[in-house]
Amino acid sequence: MKVKVAWIGKTKEPAIHSLTAEYLKRLSRYVPVESLELASEEALLKQIEKSSSRTPPLLVLLDFRGKQLTSEELAEFLDHHQTRGTQTLLFAIGPADGFSDSARQAASITLSLGKMTLAHELARVVLLEQLYRAFTILKGHPYHTGH
């Protein structure tokens, strides 16, 4: 399985670049991972259409209207997709005003990072850290328990 993390909009903050790179590096120890900085929601939907895989990526939108998961439940979600042979999971963080109805309809699942509003750049770092944490849970690494 491959994981792609996409976001809409340019990253301006050096600290966000640094944290994004750090968690992508950590995550790459467990799964092939790719990041995508996209200009628009339309560009995101085109990414799915032009996929070179046998099957299109499974789109996971991050949106305040989505389902909230614990870290362990996210690990179970990832394990389920690894086990069933999902080729690519595409996690997408949307624009400031959220995703359109058409994007939400294209998604296989919509997840929320919580009830509080996060800046989009911060949401990306939180998502990447949680993906990393989920893979460490699956591998029995002590990162999750703090040991």
The top level CATH class name: Alpha Beta
Full CATH superfamily name: SPOUT methyltransferase, trefoil knot domain
Structural class of the secondary elements?
A: alpha/beta
List the domain count as a whole number. Answer: 1
Taking strands numbered 1, 2, ... along the chain, how are they ordered across the largest sheet?
A: 2-1-4-3-5
Taking Cα atoms only, what radius of gyration do you get, to the nearest Å?
14 Å
CATH architecture: 3-Layer(aba) Sandwich
Mean pLDDT across all amino acids? 93
| End-to-end C-alpha gap | 28 Å
Main β sheet profile = 5 strands, parallel
Q: Which stretches are poorly predicted, pLDDT < 50 over at least 5 residues?
A: none
Query: What share of residues is helical?
Result: 40-55%
CATH topology: Alpha/beta knot
Oligomerization? single chain
User: In percent terms, what proportion of residues is strand?
Assistant: 15-25%
Molecular shape: globular
What do you see in this structure?
The chain has a single domain (2-145), classed as SPOUT methyltransferase, trefoil knot domain (Alpha/beta knot). The protein contains five helices and five strands. Helices cover 42% and strands 23% of the residues. It is α/β, with parallel strands linked by helices and 147 residues long. Helix 1 links the parallel strand 1 (2-8) and strand 2 (33-38). Helix 1 (14-27) packs parallel to helix 5 and helix 3 packs across helix 5 (120-139). Strands 2-1-4-3-5 form a five-stranded parallel beta sheet, with helices on both faces.
